[in-house]
Specification:
transcription cis-regulatory region binding, about 220 residues, DNA-binding response regulator, CheY-like_superfamily, alpha/beta, Rossmann fold, single chain, five-stranded parallel beta sheet, phosphoprotein
Length: about 220
Amino acid sequence: MRVLLVEDDTGLASEIAAALRAENFAVDHADNGVDGLHLGDTELFDAAVLDLGLPGLGGIEVLRGWREAKRDLPVLILTARDGWSDKVQGFKAGADDYLVKPFRVEELVMRLRALVRRARGHADARLACGSLVFDAQVGTFERDGLPLKLTALEWRVLSCLMLRKEIVVPRADLIERVYEGDAEVDSNSVEVIIARLRRKIGHAMIETVRGLGYRLTAGEAAAG
């Protein structure tokens, strides 16, 4: 999962980004509204964390710009304002959730997970595909009832496939949702990650759809 963080407070942005990366999220950061609007318009993200009080262009204007451009990513607004009118203005502009500063980053992580899951049409936090189970609210995977140990990149790819199980996910989408914007990506990087995942969950569970991408299915095969 890849998150866009638009926050001008350097200390807070570093704290949020570190917490999200510790939970395997990829994070891209913009410290002003103009750059945030551009990133949200031109790149793929699973969710955005957006401060209202931004230099250059305010958070409400950024959000309106995304919605006018038909960008439907879930947006969690951060603000020091706790007035009723500010919340209403944010929701009218298209916000999906709201946190008032100060807050605990653990709550932000949990709210983001819920937003991403619901945006993909999943009401239940526990998602299953064959013997594979993903607790989307906690961020853990199990196979045959046992915890599945994954690297950050493996987790991002598998969570992306699980949230879209039985649907073909284009290779280009996986690259955009797995890597941060400044990452150097090898031409076969996704294939390498897919190969590692197949060894862990079973080759038949990840189907290659030639010319299109990959699909997570309930097909079973012994891992290893």
